[in-house]
Design brief:
Blueprint: H1 2-16, H2 37-43, E1 56-61, E2 66-71, H3 72-83, H4 90-110, E3 118-119, H5 134-142, E4 146-150, E5 153-154, E6 159-160, E7 192-198, H6 199-204, E8 221-226, E9 232-237, E10 240-243, H7 244-251, E11 258-262, E12 266-272, E13 280-281, H8 282-291, H9 295-302, E14 307-310
Parallel strand pairs: 1-3, 6-13
Antiparallel strand pairs: 1-2, 4-5, 4-14, 7-12, 8-9, 9-10, 11-12
Helix pairs in contact: 3-4, 3-5, 4-5, 4-8, 4-9
Bound molecules: zinc ion (ZN).
Zinc ion binds at residues 113, 118-119, 121, 124-125.
């Protein structure tokens, strides 16, 4: 219990410092800080030479408008650094490293970029930090070359910061992105976010979607349907039907798991979780690692039907 008490305090502090988080599964950086003396002492040791694989990727960095060549394992470390703090539990870091490596190969194999393998856009590929810490490199080295496969190919190992109630099943085409239970993430401050909009700014957010906002604003929002994972699937809005993810993106919500209520000036929305809800929830992975689960048990929970393979 003592460990959870420490985690609560530190994680709540870090979550309070998080910037605004969008709706992509990888958009939110899981900047979490967990007390873990074993990890801290290991991070300070001399034995911190990063493992570098021999699979080279070309990665486009938007801000600098450059394409860099990165060894796969170096890429994984930098991408891991973008979404997890170095003092996260080691098994959670390792699980995320395998998920990142797998998704990188999946995306590279899809060849959606004509001139390079991957971009650093969190809405398309995966975010990539400029540097990584020893703990990131260690998680990469400890899982070197390991990926999750389904049908003999790299799986589409999406992940997200925080989940409401459960993860979201992706659909029949990707059965390993099934609905999975999550731990109680409600004590993470970043789990719950409240938004308020006056009625005019609310209406303006949906320009171009065919919504007609007239009359009593309390009648603008009609029926809401939900996904299997308890997220908003469709919402009747100003006489049109809007998808939950579009609604969330237009308002800049953290996820499409939300409630909405009318106020004296407009609307208040309370959003739960952060990200798409597909695949592994990093907040739950942190808790599962703190419980003593290893990275393979965590991955098996969030990506059932996949197998650990060498790439
Ligand atoms: Zn991309």
């Amino acid at each position: 219990m003592k460990q959870y008490g420490i985690m609560f305090f530190v994680l709540a502090l870090w979550c309070a410092l998080l910037p605004a988080i969008g709706v992509s599964p990888s958009e939110a950086a899981a900047y979490t800080e967990v007390s873990n003396s074993e990890e801290m002492s290991a991070a300070e040791s001399e034995n911190s030479v990063p493992y570098l694989g021999d699979t080279e990727l070309t990665v486009y960095f938007k801000e600098s408008n450059t394409v860099k060549r990165l060894e796969l394992e170096e890429y994984v470390a930098l991408a891991l650094s973008a979404v997890m703090a170095p003092d996260s539990p080691a098994e959670a870091l390792k699980a995320q490293a395998i998920a990142i490596r797998t998704l990188a190969l999946y995306a590279a194999n899809e060849a959606t970029h004509p001139d390079y393998d991957l971009c650093d856009n969190h809405l398309h590929c995966q975010p990539v930090a400029e540097k990584a810490e020893d703990a990131h490199y260690r998680a990469v080295a400890d899982t070197a070359g390991e990926i999750l496969t389904y049908g003999g190919k790299a799986a589409y190992t999406l992940s997200h910061l925080s989940s409401c109630l459960s993860t979201e099943p992706y659909g029949e085409e990707l059965p390993y992105l099934a609905k999975a239970a999550v731990r109680d993430e409600s004590f993470f401050e970043c789990y719950r976010t409240e938004y308020s909009f006056d009625k005019d700014s609310f209406a303006a957010a949906f320009n171009g979607l065919g919504c007609v906002f007239t009359g009593d604003y309390e009648s603008w929002i009609g029926d809401i349907s939900f996904t299997e994972g308890s997220r908003v699937e469709l919402i009747e809005l100003g006489g049109s039907t809007v998808k939950g993810d579009v609604f969330a993106a237009r308002l800049g919500l953290d996820s499409r798991c939300f409630t909405v209520s009318a106020t004296s000036r407009g609307f208040t929305l309370v959003c739960y979780g952060s990200g798409s809800g597909y695949g592994m929830s990093r907040c739950s992975a942190l808790l599962m690692a703190a419980e003593g689960m290893d990275c393979y048990e965590i991955l098996e929970h969030f990506y059932p039907l996949t197998e650990i393979s060498g790439c």
